[in-house]
Amino acid sequence: MTEPDAGPLTRCGWCEKSALYRAYHDTEWGVPLHDDRRHFEFILLDGAQAGLSWETILKKREAYREAFDGFDPERVARYTASRIAKVLRDPGIVRNRLKVAGAVKNARVFLAVQERHGGFDRYIWGFVGGQPKQNRWRTLKQIPASTPQSEAMSADLRKAGFTFVGPTICYAYMQAAGMVNDHLRSCFRHAEVAALR
Predict the structure, then answer these.
(1) Which CATH code for domain 19-194?
(2) Environment class of residue 195 by beta-carbon count within 10 Å: exposed (0-12), middle (13-18) or buried (19+)?
C-alpha cells in the first residue's frame, strides 16, 4: 500500500520566485559549511551581491566559477591587472571594477587569515562559538538584517583587510554557510538543517 500524498512542501517564502531559488533553499542554504574553498566562494559571491538580489548572483554563479578559476583563492590572489581586465570583459558576471578588484584583494587576505588561524573555517566559526545558532522565526519579518555576531565579524574582516563585508553582507554569509539556521519554523528544512553540525 502506498503512502498518501503529503501535499506540497512548506518553504521559506523568499525562495518561491524560481526553481533555481527553490533548489538552492532546499539543498544548500543554511547547511553548515566547513570547507575553505566554499567559504571563499560564498565571500566572493556575497561581495558581488552587494546592492543586487541573491537570485541575480545565483543565475551568474557558474559564470563566476569559470571567471574566478573555480573559486580557488590561491589562483585569484595572483591575478594581475591584465587578468582583472579580462574578468571585467566577461558578460556572465557583474562587471563592477570595485567588486572584481575586491574579490582579488579578498583572496589575498583570505589566504593570510587561513595561515594565521590554521584555516579559515576555524576562524569564521569562532563568531558563533563553533556551533550553528538555531533560530525559531515564525515570519520572514522577524529575521534581522544583521546581528551583533555579524557586526563583530564585519569589523574583524575589515580590520584584516577584506572589502564588501558590511554587517548585512556578513549576516547573509552566515545564513548561507549555516552558521545560523534562519529557515522558518514552518519550513520543512528547519528541522533537517537543525540536525546538521
Answers:
(1) 1.10.340.30
(2) exposed
pLDDT surpassing 80 at residue 102:
yes
Which DSSP state fits 29?
T
d(CA 151, CA 163): 14
Q: What are the CA-CA distances from residue 143 to residues 89, 111, 138, 139, 149 (Å)?
A: 37, 32, 9, 7, 14
pLDDT tens-digit readout, 16-48: 999 999 999 999 999 999 999 999 999 999 999
CA 129 – CA 140 distance, rounded (Å) = 25
Answer whether 160's CB lies under 8 Å from 145's CB.
Answer: no
For residues 61-82, b (16+ Cβ closer than 10 Å) or e, as one string?
A: beebeebbbebebeebbebeee
Which residue type does 136 have?
A: R
How many helices and strands, by DSSP H and E, does the chain display? 11, 2
